[in-house]
Prior knowledge:
Helices cover 44% and strands 14% of the residues. By secondary structure, it is of the alpha/beta class.
Amino acid sequence: MPRKQFSRDELAAISTFGALKASGYRSVPVKEELRENLISHLKAGRNPFEGILGYEHSVIPEIERAILSRHNILLLGLRGQAKTRIARLMLNLLDEYMPVISGSEIHDDPFRPLSYFGRMQVASLGDDTPIDWVHRSERFGEKLATPDVSVADLIGDIDPIKAAAQKLSYSDERVLHFGLIPRCHRSIFVINELPDLQARIQVALFNILQEGDIQIRGFKLRFPLDIQFVFTANPEDYTNRGSIVTPLKDRIESQILTHYPKTAAISKAITAQEAHPAPEQKQMVKVPELAADLLEQIALVARDSEYVDEKSGVSARLTIAAMETLYSAAERRALLNDEAHTQVRISDFHAILPAITGKIELVYEGEQEGSVQVSRHLLDKAVRQLFLVHFPDPSRYKKLQGESPYKLIVRWFEEGNTLDIPVDQPDDAYRATLDNVPQLRKLVNRMIPSAGGNEVYTWMEFVLHGMAAHSLISKFPLDVKVRFGDITSGMFSAGEDEEGQDDLRELFN
C-alpha cells in the first residue's frame, strides 16, 4: 500500500504527534522507504540515477536489486567511476520530508523514538509532542575514511562533563555524545574508501550492521539504528593502504563492481556532461567532434598503456579536466589575437599535459620516462590509433610508393620544406599555413567529405600529426610551436630550436 505524501501546505498544519497520527502518515524503516519509492520509480519509468551514463545495463540494475532486497551496499571500483555520485543520488529515493521529534539530535521517529530525549518527550507529552519536518537533503551523511578516524567520530563518546553535571553513570546513554552515524538515524550514510579505515574501527561497525547495538569504552548500549549504509572502496587500496576486514565485508549484503565506460561514445557523453567551461568560453570556442574523439582516445590509450598502473586506473576526471583546458587554451589564443571566435586545434592538445600528468599513476618504466614524456606518448599513440579509423593505413603502401595517398605530401617535405604551427598563431595565419601543403586539403575532402568550413583545417592538421605518428614525416613539439619536416633529415638535424629533442623523437617514432 503506497504511503501518503503531503504537500508543503499540509506539512505546515501537522506540527504535533497527534496531528501526524490523524493525517494517516505511516512510518517505515529507511530501507523499506527506499524500496517503496524505487518501486514507484520503476513502475512510472523514472530513472532515480539520472546523469549516470554507461551503467544502464550493469551497475544500476544491480543497485536497484540491492535496494529492493533492503541490502547495505559496497561499491567496489577504481577511481573516477561515479561511486560517490551514485550514493548521493540515492537521496532521490527518500521521501521529500520526514517527521522527527522537535529537538532530537538523531532524527527520532515519533512512532518509535530511539533516544532518551525522544522517549521522554513522547512519554510526557503524548499527542502534544511537537514535531519538525526534515527535508531529504538533510538525511545524508558522508565520511571519507582516513587512518585518523576514531570510534568517537563515527559512533560517539562519553561526555564526562554531562556525567558530572547531571550526576549520571558513564553507562547511562544520556552522557553519550553522538557521532556521525547515530546522527544519520533514518538516513543514508556513506563511508568512502573503506579500506583506509583502521581495522579496529571497522570492527566497531559490526554490531551496528547486524545486532543493532553500540559499544563505547566498554559500555554496551542497545541502539537499533535505522540506517542505509553505502560503502565505497578501490580494489588497489587492499594492497596499498589497508583492507576490509572479513567479518565486516560479510555483513555488507551486496558488493557491486563499477567499471569505466565500455565505449568511446559513452566516455565522450560523460565528458560533455561533466565538463563545465565558462559560458563565455562556450560562446567563443568551438570544439570539433574530431577533437572530442581524440580526447577520449587518450583516456582509452592510457588505460591500456604499459607505462600506466592499470590497477590504479585512469579517472574520467582526466578527460573532464582536459576538455576544460582545451577550451581555455583556445580562449587564451583568441584573446591574444583579439579574435571573437575560434576553434580547438590539434596543436592545442599540448596544453592538456598538466591535466594528464596529475591523473595517471606510473609504473617503474613510466617513472623512468617521466610523466610529461609519457603524456606526450599517450597523445601520440591516440593520434596514431584514431588516424587509422578515418584514413588508410600508411603501412599498406610502403611497397607501393606510387599508389600512396600520402605520396605528394611526403614529397613536399622531402624537398626540404618544413611547416611550423605556433601555439598562439592567429586563425587566418593558421589556415594559410596548412593551405601551403599540397594535396593536404584534397586528401581530407576525399576521405572526410562531411568536413566543412573551418573544421576542415582541424582535419588537415590532424593528417599531419597522424602521418608523423606513422613515421611518414617528422614532428618536433617545441615550447612555442609544433614543427613538421622530412622524416629522414629530421633524424639527424633538428636545428637550433630543436636541441635536446632526441628523446622525444625516439618516443614519438
